[in-house]
Amino acid sequence: MTLNNSNPKRVILHLIDTTGPGGAETVFIQLADKLRESGNQSVVVIRGDGWVKDELERKGLSPLVIPSKGSFAIGFVKELILVIKKYKVDVIQSHLLGSNVYGAIAGLITGTPVVATYHGMVDVNPNERFKWLKNTAMKWGIKHYVAVSQQLLNNIQNHNLLVPSRASVIYNGVELESYKLKKSDLIRNNLELPQDAVLVGSLGNIRSAKAYHILIEAGAKLIPANPNIHFVIAGHKKESLMTKLENQLIELGLQDNFHFIGFSDNSAEFLSQMDYFVLSSSSEGFSISTIEAMATGLPVLVTKCGGPEEIVKPDITGIMVKPNDSKALAEGLIKLIDNPKLAVKLGLAGKKRVEEKFSLDKMLNSYNSLYDDL
After folding, report:
1. Are 235 and 265 in contact (CB under 8 A)?
2. Are residues 348 and 210 in the same domain?
3. Which pTM does this prediction carry?
4. Number of domains present in the structure of the chain
5. pLDDT, tens digit, for every residue of 189-214?
6. Which domain holds residue 112?
7. Same domain for 180 and 244?
C-alpha cells in the first residue's frame, strides 16, 4: 500500500474485526473512502478476504490484510505497530470491540490517539475472555469513544466499557443522492409476482437479533385475508437460522409469500422496488436500513428496539411498535396499507428527517470535527 497524497491533512488508520457485509462494515468503508475527500489519507487494515476487502478495492483503496485468530493475538498488535510507524499514522479509527482493544493497545505503545466506535450491543459480551485486561487497555488507550446512538452509549456505559467524559454520539449517515432512484419492477418480475402484489421489504443479515421469526408470525396473521402481501427479505443467510425460518414457513404454509433473496449489494436499488419497509428486530444499536428506507421515501414500520427510537418519530415519520410482538407488527402494517394517505405522509416526513439529521455529510463532518479536536 502506498500513500497517494504527499501532504495529507492527517493519516487515519481504519481498523475493523469483521470481513463480511453489515452495518458496521458499511460505515467503516464509508469513512475510509469519503474522509479522503476532505484531505485525509486512509490506511486500511482488515483481517482477511471477503466482502469488505472487495468493496474497499472497488473504491480504489488497497487494504492491508493482517490475519489474526483467538481472543488476544499479540502478533497482530506487533504488525499493527509496524503499520502505524511505517505510514506515520496520526489517528487510529477502530470499529467493534476486538479492534477497539487492539487499537487501544497499539495506540498506547505508539502514542497515537484512538477513536473507537461501538455499533451495537454485540460489542458487549459478559463472558469475554481477558475482560478486565481488555477494559483496562481501552480505558487507557482510547482517546475518544463513539456510539452510533444515545441508547447504545448508555448501555455501553452501564457495562463499564467507556469513559463518559470522553464519549459522544455520532449517528450513521447515508448518501442521499443514492436513494433517489426511480421505482423498478425487477424483483417483482424475477419472483414472478403479480402487478398488484404489495411488497414489504426488510433489509438485514439473517441473524437472531433481526427477529425474522416474529415477522413470519405477523405474516401468518395477515396473509390469509391479504394474500397479495409479499415479504421480501434481503440479507446474508446464516444457514442454521435460515433452516429454522424455512421450517417455520412450511409449517405455516407461507412459502409463497416470503422471499429470502440473499445479500443485496445495492440497498438503494432493492428499496426502490418495495412499497413498504419493516424492521422486526429485537435489538438494534442504530439501524442503517431504516434510514435507507426513509431516504427512499418508503413508509416505515419499526420496533422499539434501541436505535430506531432516535430515528423514527412515532406516527410522524413512521410507525413504531413494541418488539417481539407479532400481533403489533401485523396491526402496524395493516394500518399503513389500509391508509394510503397516512403512508404517503409518513414517507415524506421520514425522507425529510433523514435529509436533516442522518446524511452522510453530517456523519463525515462530525468525525472530521472530532479528529480536529484531538
Report:
1. no
2. yes
3. 0.93
4. 2
5. 999 999 999 999 999 999 999 999 99
6. 11-173+359-373
7. yes
